[in-house]
């Protein structure tokens, strides 16, 4: 997940909005150089969207904001009937993208690009009202649609504020659970990031905040602990122990183990056997 950092004033302004239904096999439009933010919220089914080289599965009660001027496309067609709302908006102010919320000034609006709302009732009501205002025919409706856009963004901002601490914990625990189940395979920091749909640096920061060590260190610690247990309690060869503990080669395992424990794998085994 990333975060948009929009300077204020001026505030984002409305361009257009609607709702769509895709049926099995249909895809979102493939486009480059689209000049507006594209705010999508799915109510049924799932969209499979890629922005540049980052892929997202946007399921019911989840939303995604695509940035202007980047390449957006469906990496998979929808597999079932899928309903979603969308709104295009823009800002005349400056904006940037960060890996995590990074408030340095008071006049910053920080919005997540990918989010989930367990209770989206208010957001759905706003989208419905917004869609009913097209085409615009009165000055009051022109003002109302701008107010609704800001109300929609306020929901996201509030969600980020309430969610930030629990989100960090959830991400760290999800990463740890993934590592615990797959450490003996070729799991990597990047593969964890791909599975959890967050940048690897952000996941490592979450891990460090909750567990005191980075993702890479967590993997290494778990593999070392498993190797120690096998060396103490099994008759597997040292090469087998290295493979069963997730190391790619015996030489790398021996070097890493010796550096970590101060003893070679053979010396460690002999120390606990005799």
From TrEMBL:
What residues does the HTH araC/xylS-type domain cover?
173-271
What GO molecular-function term can you cite, just one?
sequence-specific DNA binding
This protein's record includes keyword Flavoprotein: no
The answer, when asked if Transcription regulation is one of the entry's keywords, is yes
Task: Name the InterPro entries on file.
Answer: AraC-bd, Homeodomain-like_sf, HTH-like, HTH_AraC, HTH_AraC-typ_CS, Tscrpt_reg_AraC-type_HTH
A Pfam family this chain is assigned to = AraC_binding
Show the Gene3D superfamilies listed in the entry. Answer: Homeodomain-like
Keywords, A to Z, come to:
DNA-binding, Transcription, Transcription regulation
Q: What is this protein called?
A: HTH araC/xylS-type domain-containing protein
